[in-house]
Amino acid sequence: MDHALREHGLTVPQYACLEVLAARPGLSNAELARATFVTRQSMNVVLRGLQDAKLLTRPATVETGRARPTSLTDEGRRRLNAAQGAVYAIEARMIEAIPDDRLTALLEDLDRIVRSLTD
């Protein structure tokens, strides 16, 4: 996936951030960090890179609190859409490698793992 994303000028953490923001615009740095399993400090670096590339926007200041909501730009959405095809093709290849009679159990196990991390 790293190689495929490099062709779109993205890293895996950047792609994950764009994916989450497409589904949930307006998240803060801390919320994005939790959603993508990186530290707040690492997410801050990711966000700065994406903002410098004009793939997302964040206000310089907010009226209350410290959390600055983040949103995709049109270019960010375009880049995400272009990269998704490559990522989804990789996911499809991975899924094809699992025998049909074991896929449901694997997906259930992965769901359990995710739930255990968010409890």
Automatic annotation (TrEMBL):
Cited Gene3D superfamilies: Winged helix-like DNA-binding domain superfamily/Winged helix DNA-binding domain (1.10.10.10)
GO molecular function, one term: DNA-binding transcription factor activity
Cross-referenced SMART domains: HTH_MARR
UniProt-listed GO biological process terms: response to stress
Every HTH marR-type domain range: 1-115
Pfam families: MarR_2 (PF12802)
Descriptive protein name: MarR family transcriptional regulator
